[in-house]
Design brief:
Elements: H1 2-28, H2 38-47, E1 55-59, H3 65-73, E2 78-82, H4 86-98, E3 104-106, E4 120-123, H5 127-140, E5 146-150, E6 161-164, E7 170-175
Parallel strand pairs: 1-2, 1-4, 2-3, 4-5
Antiparallel strand pairs: 5-7, 6-7
Helix pairs in contact: 2-3
The structure holds S-adenosylmethionine (SAM).
S-adenosylmethionine binds near residues 36 and 85.
Length: about 180
């Protein structure tokens, strides 16, 4: 009986988390959790204009794969991830502490994080979030901040560069 109650509580918590995720994706335009493939991360790092110092954000960082790859390449960069969803956030936190990484991850809505100190921002989100971010970047980011968006354009902005992927998706590189 005891184990039945424990298992039921765990199942209810998982179902509630899935329901919240579903609600956020459908009604709030949040992006679902899909990780950027390591090969794509390699392409981004190869093409990004970053010289190793400054603050790098991954907005909606999931398991923070991009930040972990940047840390290997540029150990002196200041690295910050923002993730609202519990499970990816927890996995990222565990991986970061196991690797003794200095990446900082906040569990927060990315639209509520001030980006004034950003030098480079990586996004793999959704068209709706990119539309909201376009205004936010204009309001908060300093001139020269680099924005990299996987798959989704930053509306009404001219990219510096577009890299085509084998999957047919693009990576868009912008400067504010
Ligand atoms: C497509 S996944 C990308 C994950 C990771 N950046 C990567 O490239 O591997 C989008 C992530 O953004 C998170 N997300 C979506 N909307 C968010 C919001 N408003 N605030 C914070 N995180 C958000 C999702 O939970 C998900 O983990």
């Amino acid at each position: 009986m005891f184990w039945l109650i424990i298992i039921s509580v765990i199942l209810i918590i998982i179902a509630a988390a899935m329901l919240i995720q579903f609600f956020n994706v459908i009604f709030r335009g949040f992006a679902p959790f899909i990780s950027t493939k390591p090969k794509v991360i390699g392409k981004i790092i190869e093409n990004m204009d970053f010289f190793g110092q400054g603050k790098v954000y991954e907005l909606g960082c999931g398991k923070a794969g991009f930040l972990r790859a940047v840390e290997l390449e540029y150990p002196r960069a200041e690295l910050a991830g923002v993730e609202y969803s519990f499970w990816p956030w927890l996995i990222a936190k565990i991986q970061i502490s196991l690797n003794k990484s200095k990446i900082k991850i906040k569990r927060k809505n990315l639209l509520k994080v001030n980006l004034a100190d950003a030098d480079l921002i990586y996004c793999y989100l959704s068209p709706r979030l990119m539309k909201d971010l376009k205004e936010k970047f204009g309001r908060e980011c300093k001139q020269g901040t680099k924005i990299i968006s996987h798959a989704f354009i930053l509306p009404d902005s001219e990219p510096d560069k577009i890299v085509e992927l084998e999957s047919g998706e693009n990576i868009y590189f912008y400067t504010i």
